[in-house]
Design goal:
With 335 residues, the chain is α/β, with parallel strands linked by helices. It contains eleven helices and 13 strands. The protein binds acetyl coenzyme *A.
């Protein structure tokens, strides 16, 4: 039996900065509303044709592989989490295998939205614990901006999301008191439509609908979010799943050195911080700069925190996510 540990981290965000004032030129919104409700000041949007979910993931992955001190052909398995794949199918995992020219290892796609990276880490962790693989490349990447409703109709959703990618290399660790101690995953599908993008999907007969019907008032091609309902569920589930992870390892909130919450809303992070009695320097937030990058938000935040020297060997690092599905989860790491 082994543990897995994160040996390399990397992230990539597009250069194109979109401020709240930029958005207010496209829709009826304003900087004050966005900052007050979400904490977001700006986000990155891919300039059309410059990047895709896959190419951003590949850029983040190259940095993570380099920092892990391994070669691309030491990668035994690829896991790619996203809700915004380049193609309906195949998923971006195989595109990474191709673009990085990695030997023909398995490539798995994870469709768990904001919890995607936590789910992906959990899957990778099991493969390493069982001894099946030694090094796994885990990517979270999102290109939201090409699929958002950039009119006033979509303002409740579109101001929140940003583009970007983060990646981690998970490697075998012989010391089972270090690395990933445990992961905890949940779902509650009864709320699936409260935060969703219904089309394209076979349930919508999407090819026929798009080509034949082409109804300009059909909003099902854009993300929908019942914001207040999602918010209320998020604060409860974040807390539950962090406590679940701590209890499973006989740990207490005071043992946390650094919490990296999924960057859904600064108010959610602040609520959790207060609930767990954590100082500002114990909770990493970057939603102000990047918005909600869904599956990419935790690996981007983790990489930034690591680059800033906020994570030391022996620290207890907690990752926690909540999002569409609803799905939620946590990862407890002894760094
Ligand atoms: N600019 C200006 N006004 C706006 C905007 C905007 N961008 N968006 C909505 N409004 C208006 C609404 O129309 C409404 O007006 P009304 O009172 O006249 O009807 C008013 O502002 C309040 O709207 P609410 O939706 O009630 O605003 P709320 O305070 O709930 O904030 C928000 C919305 C920020 C989305 C919040 O509910 C939230 O963060 N929810 C949780 C998000 C989350 O955790 N998502 C999970 C991860 S995402 C994933 O998994 C894909």
């Amino acid at each position: 039996m082994y543990n897995s540990k994160i040996t390399g981290l990397g992230f990539f965000v597009p250069e194109n900065v979109v401020t709240n004032d930029d958005l207010s030129k496209l829709m009826d919104t304003n900087d004050e509303w966005i900052q007050e409700r979400t904490g977001i000041k700006e986000r990155r949007h891919v300039v059309y044709g410059e990047d895709t979910t896959t190419t951003m993931g590949v850029k983040a992955a190259k940095i993570a592989i380099d920092r892990a001190g391994i070669k691309k052909d030491d990668i035994d398995f690829i896991i790619f989490a996203t809700l915004s794949p380049d193609y309906y199918f195949p998923g971006p995992g195989v595109l990474v295998q191709r673009d990085l020219d990695i030997k023909t290892v398995g490539a798995l796609d994870v469709r768990n939205q904001c919890s995607g990276f936590v789910y992906a880490i959990s899957v990778g962790d099991q493969y390493i614990k069982s001894g099946m693989y030694k090094n796994i490349l885990v990517i979270g990447s999102e290109l939201h901006s090409h699929g958002l409703d950039m009119t006033t109709r979509g303002r409740g959703v579109s101001v929140i999301f940003g583009d970007g990618a983060g990646a981690a290399v998970l490697s075998r660790e012989k010391d089972t008191s270090r690395g990933i101690l445990s992961t905890h995953l949940h779902s509650e599908g009864q709320h699936a439509e409260e935060l969703s993008l219904i089309a394209p999907g076979m349930g919508k007969r999407w090819v026929n609908d798009i080509i034949k019907d082409n109804d300009p008032n059909d909003e099902s091609y854009f993300p929908y979010m019942n914001g207040q309902f999602v918010f209320k569920n998020a604060v409860v589930r974040f807390s539950e799943v962090i406590m679940e992870g701590l209890s499973a390892n006989n740990l207490k909130p005071t043992d946390i050195d650094l919490l990296i919450p999924h960057q859904a809303n600064l108010r959610i992070s602040q609520f959790i911080q207060k609930q767990f009695g954590l100082r500002d320097d114990q909770v990493y937030n970057n939603i102000m700069k990047y918005g909600n990058t869904t599956a990419a938000s935790i690996p981007i935040a983790l990489t930034e925190a690591w680059e800033q020297g906020m994570i030391k060997s022996g620290d207890l690092v907690v990752l926690a996510a909540f999002g569409s599905g609803f799905t939620w989860g946590s990862v407890i790491i002894r760094w």
